[in-house]
Specification:
Helices cover 37% and strands 24% of the residues. By secondary structure, the chain is α+β, with helices and mostly antiparallel strands.
Length: 554
C-alpha cells in the first residue's frame, strides 16, 4: 500500500540525521502528550481523593463533636437532675431543721419569758419591801411626781440637804439607766425612750436644786452661814468647813461636793485641797486674785455622756469643775450684816476661764496660766500605761482631749494630775478609746451545765482575759487577771449591770455599729466557739473550731 503523508512529512526526503525512522519520532511526540494528560489526570484524581478524604475527616470530626455534645448534654442533664434531687432533699431537710429550730426557739423564748417574768415579779416584790426613799423608777407616775416635786419648791436648801437630794436623784438615775437598757433588750423602744427622757429631766431638776443651794451658800459665805449649819446639827453629820480658806465639803455615797469661795484674794495661796472629794486644785495667780468661787462635784455615775457620739468614753468617776462668780458680800453695819439681793442670790453664774476682760469689774478672769487638777482614781479602775483625761463637749456630744496637757499618773498613790487650759462649767474624766479592747484576740462560748455557759474573751491589752459565767438571767465574772477587777468576781448581776461595772472600771467589751469608724477591723475576730445542744445536760464538751475571720456579733 501507499504511505500517506502526515504532519507535512515527505517519505521521499532523506532520513533524519539521527538515523531513526521519522515515524518513530512522530510516535514519541504523540506518546509524550498522552503521558502529560495521564499525569494531569492522576493529579486531578489525587486531588479529588484528598478532597474526599478531607471531607470524610471533617464529617468524622463533626460526628465526633456532635456525639461529644450529646454526651456532654446528657451529662449536664444527669447532673442537673442530681443537683435538683439534692436541692430537693436539702430543702426538705432544711425545712425540717428550721421547723425543729423554731420549735426549740419557741421553747427557749417561752422559758426566757417565764424567767424574765419571774425576775420582774421578784424585783417588784423587792422594790415593795425596800421602798425607795425618792420614787420607784419603774413607775412612770412616781418618777413624774418626784421630778415635779424637785422643781416645784424653789426655796433654796442647805448644802447638806441639797446633797442628800442629789444622792437620791443619782440612785434613781442608776435605776432609770438600767431599766432603759432592759427595755431595749426586751424590744420595747418606746419604754426605753421614756426612761431616757426621765434621765434628762431628773438631771436638770437635780442641777436646779444644787444651783439654788450653792447660790444661797455664796450669798452667806461667812460665819453666819456656818453658824446656821451648826445650829441645825448638820455639820457633825455631813458638812466640813474650813473658815480660814472658805472651803466647804459635803459627801454622800455616790456624790461629793467641794466649794472654795475666794474672799481673801491672798496672792500667796497656791492650791486648794478638798480631801473629802479627793481633789486638789493648783490655782493660777489670775484666779487667786479674782472674785470667783470654784465648785467641784465628783459623781460615781456618768451624768453627761448618755448620747456619746465620739470614740472616747469615761472611766471611773466624773469630776465637774465649775468657776462661779461671787455675789456681793455682806457688810457689817452696827452689829448687823447687810447682804445685797441680786440675781446671784438665787442662781449661779458660770465664768469662762481664761477670758480677756478684766476680773476687777465683771468677775471674769483675765488670760493666765492653766489650772492644775489632781484627783484620786479608785482601785477598781484599770488604768492604761499612758492614761488620758478628757472633757465633755456639749456641742459635739463627745469627750475631747484638747485644752488638756501634762497628764501624769502615780501608780502608788493612784492620783492623776493634769493641766486644764480652759474650763468654766466642765466635766472631766479619765477616758479611753472605745476600740481599746475591740476586736478581741479570740473568744469562746462553752456549755458547763444545764442552762449555764461560760464566755471566755481574750483581749489585746490588760486585763487580757475575762471569763463570764451566764446562768439563766444572771451573770458573774469568774476570774480577773488584773487585780483592779477583783471586786466584781463572784457577784451575780444582770447582764447590763455587769457590763456597766466593767465599763466604769475601764473595760468596754461591747460594740455598736458606729464604732467601726474607729476600728476598721471591728467586725472580724478569731473565734473558738464550742457548740452544744442547749437541751442536753451540757456536761460533755463538743468539738471546737477556729475561724480566722469569724463574725463578731453585737
Amino acid at each position: 500500500g501507499s504511505i500517506q503523508q502526515r504532519d507535512g512529512w515527505d517519505p521521499l526526503s532523506p532520513p533524519p540525521s539521527d538515523g531513526l525512522p521519522r515515524i518513530l519520532v512522530t510516535m514519541a511526540t504523540r506518546g509524550g502528550k498522552q503521558g502529560k494528560a495521564k499525569s494531569k489526570l492522576a493529579r486531578q484524581r489525587q486531588l479529588e481523593q484528598e478532597e474526599r478524604e478531607r471531607k470524610a475527616q471533617e464529617e468524622a470530626r463533626a460526628r465526633a463533636e456532635e456525639e461529644e455534645r450529646h454526651h456532654r448534654e446528657e451529662q449536664e442533664r444527669v447532673q442537673q437532675e442530681e443537683e435538683e434531687r439534692v436541692r430537693r432533699e436539702e430543702g426538705e431537710r432544711f425545712k425540717e431543721e428550721e421547723e425543729a429550730a423554731n420549735r426549740r426557739m419557741n421553747r427557749w423564748e417561752k422559758r426566757l419569758a417565764e424567767q424574765i417574768a419571774k425576775a420582774m415579779e421578784e424585783e417588784e416584790w423587792q422594790r415593795y419591801l425596800v421602798r425607795h426613799e425618792a420614787c420607784d423608777a419603774w413607775d412612770e407616775r412616781d418618777v413624774n411626781s418626784f421630778i415635779h416635786s424637785l422643781g416645784e419648791d424653789t426655796t433654796p436648801q442647805s448644802l447638806s440637804d441639797a446633797m442628800r437630794t442629789l444622792q437620791l436623784c443619782v440612785e434613781v438615775l442608776k435605776d432609770l439607766k438600767s431599766y432603759a437598757w432592759r427595755a431595749v433588750g426586751l424590744g420595747d423602744q418606746e419604754k426605753a425612750a421614756t426612761f431616757v427622757d426621765f434621765q434628762w429631766r431628773l438631771r436638770a431638776a437635780a442641777q436646779g436644786v444644787l444651783d439654788r443651794a450653792t447660790a444661797d451658800f455664796l450669798q452667806f459665805v461667812d460665819t453666819a452661814f456656818i453658824n446656821r449649819e451648826r445650829e441645825e446639827g448638820r455639820e457633825a453629820r455631813d458638812i466640813k468647813a474650813d473658815l480660814k480658806f472658805q472651803i466647804v465639803q459635803v459627801s454622800q455615797d455616790d456624790v461629793r461636793l467641794g466649794i472654795w469661795a475666794n474672799l481673801a484674794k491672798n496672792p500667796r495661796l497656791k492650791s486648794v485641797e478638798f480631801p473629802e472629794v479627793g481633789v486638789t486644785a493648783h490655782l493660777p495667780k489670775t484666779l487667786v486674785l479674782a472674785s470667783v468661787a470654784i465648785r467641784l462635784l465628783q459623781c460615781d455615775v456618768d451624768l453627761v455622756s448618755w448620747e456619746n457620739t465620739g470614740d472616747l468614753y469615761p472611766v471611773g468617776r466624773i469630776l465637774f469643775v465649775e468657776l462661779l462668780q461671787l455675789p456681793p458680800q455682806g457688810r457689817r453695819v452696827r452689829g448687823w450684816i447687810m447682804h445685797q439681793i441680786t440675781e446671784l442670790s438665787h442662781s449661779v453664774k458660770h465664768v469662762e476661764y481664761p477670758a480677756s476682760t478684766d476680773a476687777s469689774t465683771s468677775g471674769t478672769v483675765p488670760q493666765g496660766a492653766s489650772l492644775a487638777v489632781t484627783f484620786h482614781i479608785p482601785d477598781r479602775v484599770v488604768v492604761d500605761e499612758t492614761p488620758a483625761v478628757g472633757w465633755w463637749s456639749e456641742s459635739l456630744h463627745a469627750w475631747q482631749t484638747d485644752h488638756i496637757s501634762d497628764v501624769r499618773f502615780d501608780s502608788e498613790t493612784r492620783q492623776v494630775t493634769f493641766q486644764a487650759h480652759h474650763f468654766g462649767n466642765t466635766a472631766f474624766a479619765l477616758v479611753k478609746s472605745r476600740s481599746t479592747f475591740i476586736p478581741y484576740d479570740s473568744w469562746q462560748l462553752r456549755s458547763t451545765g444545764i442552762h449555764t455557759v461560760v464566755l471566755s474573751i481574750d483581749l489585746p491589752v490588760p486585763p487580757k482575759r475575762l471569763d463570764i459565767v451566764v446562768e439563766e438571767t444572771k451573770c458573774s465574772l469568774v476570774n480577773a487577771i488584773d487585780g483592779s477587777l477583783g471586786e466584781l468576781v463572784g457577784q451575780w448581776l444582770d447582764p447590763w449591770d455587769l457590763l456597766t461595772c466593767l465599763v466604769w472600771s475601764g473595760v468596754l467589751i461591747t460594740a455598736a455599729s458606729p464604732d467601726d469608724q474607729y476600728s476598721p477591723n471591728l467586725w472580724q475576730v478569731t473565734a473558738d466557739a464550742s457548740h452544744s445542744d442547749p437541751e442536753s445536760d451540757g456536761n460533755s464538751q463538743t468539738q471546737s473550731h477556729k475561724d480566722e475571720h469569724a463574725t463578731y456579733m453585737e
